[in-house]
């Protein structure tokens, strides 16, 4: 029998050492635990659709250099923090001057601050389900710690721009940790962009911990090039009456994957997860979400939509887990998918796991093509066939795009979607 593939030892070589000692120790521990780590295969349930797209060759093991030019990110009102190849760039960043809001790069933490952070990192993610999040913990060279004091309000969005410079092959490991105090409020935008043409991998991890009554809006825009593998994970833990809103917009590539895990741990917590993915050519995108209803009287609402064209492949796996003590839970999940060609593939797997008897839960999934009767109706009203298909496709996706609360992200997503549709329907 052929042995299962394991993570190459090249990925476990020490990275930069300018972090505080407690974080270096944590990284060393995580790296030691990854020795001989099995890589996902088709037999790995939560990777069965994506394992064949994951390419962890030794040329990707080297950390990308952190010096050089900076790309162009969203030009939008707000505060901006720039990462380049996983390391924060202070001179390109604009920190908010807001009472109760503290932002520090990992490299600037005191030993006491770093020790406290080291004890909290990885506590929001299921390590058994998200293997490559553990690789980030073994390799991150820097990160961003965001602390919101009780009642602190960040009025403008905080844009965290993660640039990947792919002039040479290698990998980058950006890391974000958000500690939202009681009744604090903030909107964070993660934007992932790239320049250069060499094969690279981005392994990004973000963690959010929300205290009682905190309100966090998270917007994630993945718009890297065709040479970039992106494997990301987001973990969230919520206390009583907190609210977490997530808006993820992803454009396909050779390998794209995002794991989003939310734990509603105290009564009254609620979350809303929206996601939009488009793929074309031979691209791949995989969204895996988990919502854990641990406490009673919690609400969750999840809506994801995929569009696949060409010979591309999109995946959605959403699981809602209602624990035994989570009575009076209210959970809804919807996944709608649109195939724009006969060669495209979409796999969807909504799951409900319920151990409480006084709950309201629903889930549904659909996969289909553009309705020919609807196209005929529009054509009969004087609209040419290509514009008719464009209108119907945009209508399918715009409902979620319009809910993104940051105008710059909405405009960027709309422009990219228009380009996607122009390319997809150019033969029509």
From TrEMBL:
Tree of life domain: Bacteria
Domain SUF system FeS cluster assembly SufBD core span(s) in chain numbering: 170-396
InterPro entries named among the record's database cross-references: Fe-S_cluster_assembly_SufBD, SUF_FeS_clus_asmbl_SufBD_core, SUF_FeS_clus_asmbl_SufBD_sf, SUF_FeS_clus_asmbl_SufD
Pfam families documented for this protein: SUFBD_core
Protein name, entry field: Fe-S cluster assembly protein SufD
Highest classification ranks of the organism: Bacteria, Pseudomonadati, Pseudomonadota, Gammaproteobacteria, Pseudomonadales
């Amino acid at each position: 029998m052929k042995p299962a593939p394991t993570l190459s030892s090249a990925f476990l070589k020490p990275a930069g050492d300018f972090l505080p000692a407690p974080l270096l120790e944590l990284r060393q521990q995580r790296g030691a635990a990854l020795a001989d780590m099995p890589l996902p295969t088709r037999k790995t349930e939560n990777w069965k659709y994506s394992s064949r797209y994951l390419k962890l060759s030794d040329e990707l093991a080297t950390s990308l250099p952190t010096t050089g030019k900076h790309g162009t990110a969203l030009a939008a009102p707000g505060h901006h923090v720039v990462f380049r190849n996983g390391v924060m760039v202070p001179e390109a960043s604009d920190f908010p001057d807001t009472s109760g809001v503290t932002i520090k790069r990992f490299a600037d933490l005191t030993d006491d601050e770093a020790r406290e952070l080291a004890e909290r990192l990885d506590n929001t993610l299921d390590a058994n389900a998200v293997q490559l999040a553990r690789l980030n913990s073994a390799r991150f060279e820097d990160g961003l710690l965001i602390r919101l004091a009780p009642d602190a309000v960040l009025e403008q969005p905080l844009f965290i721009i993660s640039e990947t410079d792919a002039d040479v092959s290698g990998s980058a490991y950006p890391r974000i940790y958000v500690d939202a105090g009681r009744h604090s409020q903030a909107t964070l935008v993660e934007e992932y962009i790239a320049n250069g043409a060499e094969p690279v991998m981005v392994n990004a991890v973000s963690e959010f911990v929300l205290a009682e009554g905190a309100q966090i809006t998270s917007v994630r825009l993945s718009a890297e090039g065709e040479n970039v593998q992106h494997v990301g994970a987001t973990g969230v833990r919520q206390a009583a009456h907190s609210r977490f809103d997530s808006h993820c917009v992803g454009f396909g590539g050779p390998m794209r994957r995002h794991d989003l895990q939310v734990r509603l741990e105290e009564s009254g917590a609620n979350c809303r997860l929206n996601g939009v993915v488009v793929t074309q050519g031979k691209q791949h995108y995989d969204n895996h979400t988990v919502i854990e209803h641990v406490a009673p009287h919690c609400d969750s609402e999840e809506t994801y939509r995929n569009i696949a064209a060409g010979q591309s492949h999109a995946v959605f796996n959403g699981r809602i887990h209602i624990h035994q003590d989570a009575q009076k839970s209210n959970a809804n999940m919807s996944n709608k998918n649109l195939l724009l060609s006969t060669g495209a593939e979409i796999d969807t797997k909504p799951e409900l796991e319920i151990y409480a008897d006084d709950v309201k839960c629903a889930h549904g999934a659909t996969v289909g093509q553009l309705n020919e009767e609807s196209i005929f109706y529009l054509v009969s009203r004087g609209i040419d066939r290509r514009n008719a298909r464009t209108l119907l496709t945009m209508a399918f996706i715009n409902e979620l795009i319009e809910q993104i609360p940051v105008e710059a992200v909405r405009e960027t997503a709309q422009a990219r979607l228009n380009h996607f549709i122009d390319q997809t329907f150019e033969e029509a």
